[in-house]
Amino acid sequence: MIDPLSYGQRQWQQILSSYDADIRTRVRDLVLEHSRELAEDFYEQMMDLPEARDFLAHEMVNQRLKASMTRWLEQAFSVQELAVVPEAVERQFEVGRVHARINLPINLVSMGARLHKRRLLEYITTIWHTPAVWLQAAMYLQDVMDLSLELMSLAYVSKSDRKSRAAEAYRLHTLGLNIAVERERQRAALLDWSQELVFSLHRGEQPLSGLVRSEFGLWFYHKAVSVFENAPEIGQIEQVLQQIDLSLLPELQSSMAGDTAMMMEKMATLQQEVKAIAYFMTTMFDRYIELEHGRDTLTRLLDRRFLPAVLNREVQLARRSDGAFSLILFDVDHFKGINDNYGHEGGDMVLQQVANVVAGSVRSSDFTFRYGGEELLVVLVEMDADSALILAEKIREKLMSSSLQLPLGQSTQVTISGGVATFDGHPDYEHLINRADKALYRAKHQGRNCCLMG
Predict the structure, then answer these.
(1) Phi and psi at residue 108, to the nearest 5°
(2) What is the pLDDT at residue 329?
């Protein structure tokens, strides 16, 4: 199998050795002179394309992307010595990996390269009138642009393949949970919402918030739709959810001012629709058998390899609905001391109990991962920054007051530090994780046992 890094280095070295240093220097100077203009022209054209606008926003383009593209152009053509080739190749790989993380269509990347080449060729033929000179310059320009695109595509395809495998593995993992337990949990959530609606009506209060925003609704849209992908019941349940929220609940609310018979009729209709959801859900669950795989073997939390599948979906949902979701990155304070004092068996017992406290403190629609070592990562769906920080503090306080069991009947107490970050529109989920990680770093350095916002 060909090593992509070695291949890229050989190809770039061959380009450098194929062209006169004077030609390479003059093309570099030309690119440096017009790099900002090229970036502005590219994004101006991109913003006119509907498929590109899904990935771009004017603010993001002005604050980040123009500068990034300008820097990429300048760095690619500033490679003049063999010693800097490995760094240049790795830079193209990283750009490709970022494009894959944010699901940027590869055709938009190719379009960008084509636009840059066309504009730069116009400059070359205008500046250099001798055919032999401008032909060499044009060939060098094309070789560098094509190799950059090729290396980005290599990384893009590799990253996309890993993402697809991880997404499928996550789906299979979730199907492998105790399906019967989860089915009963969601049945209970659906019943709780229905009963609370009845109680509200008897108290003469307005009906509670819609089913879509309930515990069941959040679970359905953020987990079930992905887990039971292509199951016919997904569409059936969604149709009934929309019918209840958009039609039946408003009608029920209006009937409260009229006669009781009308209100009871509307309520009976709504209850029949709730039963229909329960039936569809049971049918959907019964399609799958119980499996047991895909969890972290120690904590029984989600394995971090499923994180890209979850976060990519949450980013897409948040961008589509202009919503928000949050992350909490927890780290057990002074965990090395626990291992030193009580051995790794004691450390494992503590980490298992910390994981239970954290996982038991979030909603069924949220996701809890073992991120690495003694770090846990929580994905809070449809939760803003203030609510996420409040929840992080509640978990911290709950754990601080918990007595954790150790070997030989001993017990101890531990604290955790947390970093909180809320989705800000950036399409790359690593950006969000990095913000949470930096907030956690600040919390550790401010004395630990606290949670800070990133």
Answers:
(1) -70, -35
(2) 98
